[in-house]
Amino acid sequence: MNDIRFPAEWEGCESVLMAWPDLCTDWSDVLDMVLPEYVEIIRAFTGAGLRVVLLAHSRKEVELYFSVLPERLHIIECEYNDTWTRDYGPLTVERNGRLRALDFGFNAWGLKFASDRDNLVNLGLRNRHFIEPAIYRNERDFILEGGSVESDGRGTILTTTKCLCSANRNGGKSKEELNEILAQRLGADHVLWLDHGALIGDDTDSHIDTLARLCPHNTIAFTGCRDMDDPQFEELLKMRAQLTLFRTAEGEPYNLLELPMPAPVFDSEGNRLPATYANYLVTSTHLFMPVYGDKQKDTLACQTIRVAYPEHEVVPVPCRSLLLQHGSLHCATMQIPENIFNPTVYEY
Question: What burial letters (b/e) apply to 302-325, b meaning 16+ CB within 10 Å?
């Protein structure tokens, strides 16, 4: 039996790791739009009792946007390229009952953008003892983004072929090779490979957290598309068909929960952006749903996800401006369980 367990996201977290958009990032041209949303996101998290550990180039720049900093907001000044902490933040596993923070390599979604500073964030947190060296594990010889893998906490991982088998990440390894690596690093003994599914405007090569999410009680919530004229229709229909064929480790079919397709969102040049309700963040008590300013669809998404999480408080969080850099709520956050961050982090 594998002694490594990759906890499910809904098992809970104590902190959320984020990074502040500023002039040093690709957000520089739209700061007036995105920063108010970041403030709302941080207030939603801290209001729900979570701590937010916020990477920032300058503490003073963050303070300008808050009349009073939330008590549970903790700022760490450090260097980074971009704000998508989901994909370069530490992944947490249990090994023989003890938590470990895994630092995988990050190369900006297959060498698409600069990532030299992002790739050093976790090591920097370790060197400054925000993550204790005894907890930190160097896995940087393998490229793995947090948004590319979903876990049920019981050995099953859901991922996409297009992303993990990418030649620009780990040399185009086969599913068989990757199954072995995921078993060794994340304790996976049942890997579900999604071969279909893509959103227009997505830079990640079909991260699973834009398409389908593992939920409690053998449920998969997925991005649906009912509009036959939508250019995404055929690919998402193939994805849905494949999801019906997936089986649990015990051989049972999954309960499928279709999330609505958000109304199309475009940038100033008319390019469609990858809006999706699958990009939510869930804790043991709350589910934070990205919403995009379409009252009907936003409400339907919040109502639908309650089927999978009937005991959770569903909190809608405005994320329309996050789409301008081709991500959303889950992309901008990494859940951190209790006892991963050294308590000294909260003095910052």
Answer: bebbeebbeebebbbbbbbbbbbb
